[in-house]
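Please discuss these two lines.
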Amino acid sequence: MPRPVIAVVYDFGSVAPADIVDRLEPLGDVVLAVCPSRHTEELAPLLADLAPVVPVHEEDAHTLDASAELLREHRPDAVLTYSERRLGTTAGLAARLGLPFHDARTVRLLTDKYEQRRRLRERGVDPVRCRLLRTPGDWAPALAAVGLPAVLKPLRGEGSRSTHLVRDAATGAALATRLLTAPASAGGEEALVLEEYLEGVGAGPFGDHVSVESAVLDGRVTHWATTGKFPLAPPFREVGHFWPAPVTGAERDAVLTLAADAVRALGVRTGITHTEVKLTPDGPRLIEVNGRLGGFQAGLGRLAGGLDPVLLAAEVALGRPLPTTWVPDDRVTYARALPTPAEGGLLTGVRGVGEVRGLPGVDTYETRVQPGRTVEPGVATGELAVLWGTADAHDAMLAVLDRALDTLTYTFAGTPGTPEERTVRARDLVPAGPGTRRRPRPHRRTKGLLMTTEPATTELPSTGEDSSAAPASAEGGRAVANGAEIRTDIPQFLPVAGHHAPAPFYLTADMFGGVPVELAGGPITHLVGKPVADPHRHAVDEIYFLVSPNPGGARIDVLVDGERHELTSPALLRVPAGAEHRFLTLEAEPGSYCFGLLLGSER
């Protein structure tokens, strides 16, 4: 009897091609239907070596018809994809080949964030407020309908690209204008969705959201895992996942019911779904439903044993019976991502990998960015590396990761021609869970300057851990303990007029019930010779604050209404309200910073 033929539509964001071929081998023979992209062009020799390759073009219905005919020559028994961006392509091929997959209408509901929210609201699954924005003029009516705080994100997107938390109207208006008017090459978006922000519950060292992994066959929904998350890096960057999620039986039942209702409401008949759910004080609420395998699921399945998610997706496409068991839950399996710094930079070195690989419970250190590669700035999810491992329980997982994050360090330089370096610990790249206790960080002296690598205010009493301490409340990076309000959700990357990218703000006018100043800026060693903004104006005074470990260690050129001023650290400069200005870093030793103190807010 001939082996089944499984056609996998391949592009960026998929399971690794070698993994696809190896893990589907027990089921049948793989044919790779490859879509043209920079990613697939780079991997073309590898793809051709692994399996038969069929090029897929979809410029119009005619070219997709031709691609389907080429694929038909291999007589596929199933077609599927592990790539978010190729759901529509796969649906088109499946329809032409008469094979089961999401239909075109379902794919639209799975990939169009506004249409998905509208369908879920219409079917009574989840009434999250949301509005569609196609032009900057749509901001005001969208704001009136949704309110604040809100999430602004692309109509279609992946990896938290261009996704921002908006807490004030002026910031949102500026973001919407920039994203809707910039060209795609500069991060522009065709359309945006403004939706109600769901406030989560404090989940200690864990994220306040989970995901449900489901298989659907002929309309029957079977859940095979509930995935726990680590706290997001601001604004909405995923930094890892683990099995099983740390929820009670009742919480899990409520989450599963919500996920199943959502999948059915979107019309999913056959395929794999990945449903993200926020844990709120009012119960679980939907973040979004995706029509493909979730991130890191392939690796978690390999470590956990038992059920293989990659294989499961192909079994569903072939119409095989659904599993009757969950993934093993007698131990914890984790993938802890170390996110790329939002400010970007050239990675020049990594230390501590050997020591971390030897830690009990760490299975693999996976490099995602090699030294010598430049990390682009931005708010999209990206990883320097991923730690994979297993532990007997959630506490044991946290303990080994705590040691690993204190051991690993990453060194960055601005450009290959700028040798000055900055070194950060993995600990500084990942967020702390709200309300969690973190060990005090040691102070160190560098060339006579007393520095601390973390504000002392980040150590908070854990709930129930110290009965003598006043209760601490925490929410979204904000906490109150003994009457002191603490913010750890910083920096917040916000748009500033004239700037080439959102600026890191450490203090904004809406914090602490309203303050009269805002503070933005950061390290400048990697910015030598690289302007961060075009000449621009503010409606309020701004004070530049230039510092470095040694006097004279940093120099910047400031242009104010056409007049140049060269500042040498330490120095302050006031830019009057309404004056056109910009600054350029001329020299900066490691540890040099420039901050802009806005005497008021105009965002």
